[in-house]
Amino acid sequence: MKIFYSTAHLRHAPTFEVFDGGVRVPIFEVPERATRILAALQQTDWAEILPPDDFGLDPILAVHDRGYVEFLASAWTEWLATDPEAGTAADKSALLPATFALRNQARRPASLLGRAGYYMMDLSAPIVEGTYAAALASANCALSAAQAVEAGERAAFALCRPPGHHAGVSNCGGYCYFNNAAIAANWLSSKGKVALLDIDYHAGNGTQDIFYERADVLTISIHADPAFEYPHFSGYADQHGAGAGLGFHHNFPLPSGTDDTAYLETLNHALDLIREFAPSYLVISAGMDIYTNDPLGKIKVSHEGIAEIGRRIAKLNLPSVVVMEGGYNNEALGGNVVAFLVTFT
Ligand SMILES: [Zn+2]
To answer: ω into residue 231 within 30 of 0, thus cis?
Structure first.
């Protein structure tokens, strides 16, 4: 299987994030996540590790707002220019605003911190010097995997870091900057109908935002119920799309403590919807934070459960682009990804 990986992700290494209650903690989304997955794949006899191609900005701008992309591109240099201590002082190691745009006051201001609050949804997507380069490389990994599958591969894996599914048309958040899976799905949508299945523990709010009014990309997310879990504002069962996209988005919110049996039952419903839609391509937002021992997750899917999820999705027998999303139990992460991917070989 072709695995697309770029060392550019190492340049994105913020040191902290801010949790509910204002607690500043070491960030969970660290470079070690990707290097552990890479190491586990290198132990297999089927993973062919390749650098991504450069697709330029067009496929990213086909999904994300231009002003948002330009903000990400220049934020760090602007941050350095506006504050002599930016980037060096301990309390200024990353660009992170403390003021956020309300939905009814959505004027985009000129100031850097104003734009940061306008384009960021939370305190979990700090921007550091290498963020933009890493996010671009991550999107290129997803596009390269899509290209490989379009060229005839049965499946390809984009070892994306930073992840993407919380990034909407014009926002970063939840460790995500560019929505890699959405960029790949949109790229493939010019070649045939696409289904995008998100199995990350958290609702794929960014993906929901991007495709909400489209009928050519079926989006389905199985996740912890946003009534108790991040990202809180999206991922509800009654959100089914709008306009032309009405009926082409499905959320399956799950209660805390969901086990393998209950998870797999829900997955079967999602797979039925995909079969009914009859897409030409499948994109999978593969988050491993559904794992029972994930520090950020509250559902209980076992290692064997993750393998079974892979087997059932693989049985759709669709050309499949697997895109890495979350997963924060670093000890188990590589093994879980390998167990999932091997079912597509
Ligand atoms: Zn997640």
So the answer is: yes
